[in-house]
Amino acid sequence: MGKGDLKSRRGKINRGTFGASRPKKEANRQARRLKLGLEKND
């Protein structure tokens, strides 16, 4: 496991991708969902 392992956190950082081992920030997720209209904005 290391920089080349796509399932590890270090591999995700090296590749610049996100996934289960390296989720994006929760605040960004909520803002994106509101923008796409997936959640109700009361």
Automatic annotation (TrEMBL):
<dbReference type="InterPro" id="IPR031414">
    <property type="entry name" value="Ribosomal_bTHX"/>
</dbReference>
<dbReference type="InterPro" id="IPR030826">
    <property type="entry name" value="Ribosomal_bTHX/bTHXc/bTHXm"/>
</dbReference>
<dbReference type="GO" id="GO:0005840">
    <property type="term" value="C:ribosome"/>
</dbReference>
<keyword id="KW-0687">Ribonucleoprotein</keyword>
<protein>
    <submittedName>
        <fullName>30S ribosomal protein THX</fullName>
    </submittedName>
</protein>
<dbReference type="Pfam" id="PF17070">
    <property type="entry name" value="Thx"/>
</dbReference>
<comment type="similarity">
    <text>Belongs to the bacterial ribosomal protein bTHX family.</text>
</comment>
<keyword id="KW-0689">Ribosomal protein</keyword>
<feature type="region of interest" description="Disordered">
    <location>
        <begin position="1"/>
        <end position="42"/>
    </location>
</feature>
